[in-house]
Structures
1.
Amino acid sequence: MAIRALLGAFGSRSIATRMASYSRSLSTLVVAEHEGGFVKASSLSAVEAAKYLGEDNSISLLLAGSGRSLQEAAEHAASCHPSISEVLLADSDKFTYPLAEPWARLVHLMQQKGSYSHIIAGSGSFWKNILPRAAALLDVSPITDIIGISGSNLFVRPIYAGNALNTVRYTGSDPCMLTIRSTSFPFGPVSACSFSNAAFVNKVDLSTFTEDDVVGKSKYLSLSSQDTERPDLGNARVVVTGGRALKSAENFKLIEKLAEKLGAAVGATRAAVDAGFAPNELQVGQTGKIVGPELYMAFGVSGAIQHIAGMRDSKVIVAVNKDADAPIFQVADYGLVGDLFEVIPELLEKLPERK
Ligand SMILES: Cc1cc2nc3c(=O)[nH]c(=O)nc-3n(C[C@H](O)[C@H](O)[C@H](O)COP(=O)(O)OP(=O)(O)OC[C@H]3O[C@@H](n4cnc5c(N)ncnc54)[C@H](O)[C@@H]3O)c2cc1C
């Protein structure tokens, strides 16, 4: 086993920024996601994380796909983060769709070409699908859900639904493959960033990438994307979450209306998702999305540990619950014992319209 558990007792907030780094010759490949011509915020968080691996870390960012949006994403990547030294562009219709098999082969190929010391990706479902396959091809053991980095081989990650933190030392061979929680390595507004020292953009030579590399068991059918009007749940500044107490999908629209008024993303507990009040991609928690907004508002949410695991890093937590003993109040900064069916309409009435 390449990973050795060492300790487990760090405070949970801002660990990434508190830990020191030490230097050694490093080169990191950040495997990135892009959408609509922009590199996703979670991938820029992976670049942020790479900075903590040590000084003199040369950071390359890999983008794959095809068409105009890939070219636009490459331009964005080249100027969006001062630590990126090179943007690598795998431009082929083999990567138009997010299928795990060809993408895992691509990561394998990139490692063969670049001999990176580290490969880093965000913790989202996209890379969760790909990275373990790439790690198997490279015969290394990945470390997932990193929230703190203290040098090139020492990482902190939550265990037991976030109730304990584990520090692990990577003792395997290169590359050390990591997925990071973007809430622990925040990077500023993605669309606005621009630096004068633009990174080089280099095309990846895919001549050795054969049809066999593309063949796999998965097949692309269609892509359903969330409502683009709303902020992305994983990166939103404000999240409004509803629980089972909403009782129906119709009532859950109260949460959506409040979110709209606040310019917030909508979240849901697993109980609300299982009951069909909200779609699966809105689930916050251990088996849903991990969020860390400035403001998290929970309505009719009991505060089960599996839910807390997904939102405990929020800066300010507001909870409204009928039951004064609900566990959610233990993590809330502001708590209101009350009926959400009275509180939300009152908030909707009193909050000013968004401009
Ligand atoms: C392996 C595993 C993984 C899991 N992963 C997740 C996960 O990722 N995310 C997640 O959320 N859960 C997860 N769960 C489920 C979790 O254990 C809880 O069952 C779930 O979070 C409860 O959701 P809830 O708070 O909406 O419902 P409940 O626990 O039923 O709580 C409803 C709350 O609403 C309050 N309430 C009722 N009526 C009103 C009202 N009118 N006004 C105000 N308050 C009211 C009640 O007092 C109560 O506290 C997981 C469970 C397991 C076993």
2.
Amino acid sequence: MAGRPSPTGSPVPPPDPAVAAAAAERLAGLATPTGALGRLGDLAVWLSAAQGQVPPIPLTDIRLVIFAGDHGVARHGVSAYPPEITAAMVRTFVAGKAGVSALAAAHDVRVRVLDLGVDDDLAGVPADVRARKVRRSSGAIHLEDALSPDETRRALDAGGAVADEEIDAGAQLLLSGDMGIGNTTPAAALVAAALGLPASEVTGRGTGIDDATWNRKVEVVQAALDRAGDRALDPVETLTALSSADLAAATGYLARAAERGVPVLLDGLMSVACALTADRLAPGAAAWFAAGHRSTEPAQTLALAKLGLEPVLDLGLRLGEGSGAVAAVPVLRSAVAVLRDVALLADLLPSR
Ligand SMILES: Cc1cc2ncn([C@H]3O[C@H](COP(=O)(O)O)[C@@H](O)[C@H]3O)c2cc1C
Ligand SMILES: O=C(O)c1cccnc1
């Protein structure tokens, strides 16, 4: 199946401004004091415009795709955990026993996990999980490119094709999640590349590293940025030099969702770093994204600010997997409910 091409750099139109205006008008007319619904009202207007209808329809089909892969840097002292955890967690998602699995079950979110670059062959794991594998462990970005140019293209295309599959199957809202020990290192590098910042400002504690490991991680991120040099000015080159198969695929998925006009709820650092990169590839894509939560990673906050997104939740989460996005789902459903089901003030008053 050929599918659509990878993002071409063409601008993405935003959700319909006329629908947004009609949704805002309905919000203003609800039987509540003006502005009393706060950000719930803003989210309702955004979702209504993204759906192209007022009021918005209930969210009954929400889908999370978890992009899994290993990272060469994980063998260079940047994480608190060993790379073998990645494959073990993929099996745990399949078994429905991960942190995000519990949240997704609670909130009726469908979960799909995809191996783009896990180091293990994942024998015994269902074939559809492995069907889009691009390579084993992506390159250690401080020493070599994460991907070849061909692998970058294949990963972007794989992510786009997965978005197409989920949208064609009926997804009303897409979420992106991640699994890959060491992945906060390339994600921080992606944010630094997009924002022109030094490693010391973007590097966080990931799984909970100590000061010595953090210093080492800053060195690795800075060496990767120095190695990439001016290539970081171009988003596809940035992905080749500094990302991984899983992060490039998540970027393709997010860009394609925006191009198809399907709203997205973002998660933590990896999700938001890929959203920032998707918005570089497909300018305007960010208008289709809402931020599920603020993670503890500094690069995630920096990227959200650049994208102009205010997170729904701020719970101190630093899990990834899509957990912060899934935790925010009830808030989005609440936003739909108020704009749909609250009476209009004009209808309560005796007509004169
Ligand atoms: C058991 C376990 C489950 C996880 N689920 C998500 N992550 C998260 O932590 C990792 C990123 O942090 P760092 O860059 O410091 O390695 C990723 O796998 C991310 O998905 C996990 C990490 C662990 C250990
Ligand atoms: O921001 C995240 O999602 C995150 C932070 C630390 C570790 N894993 C994920």
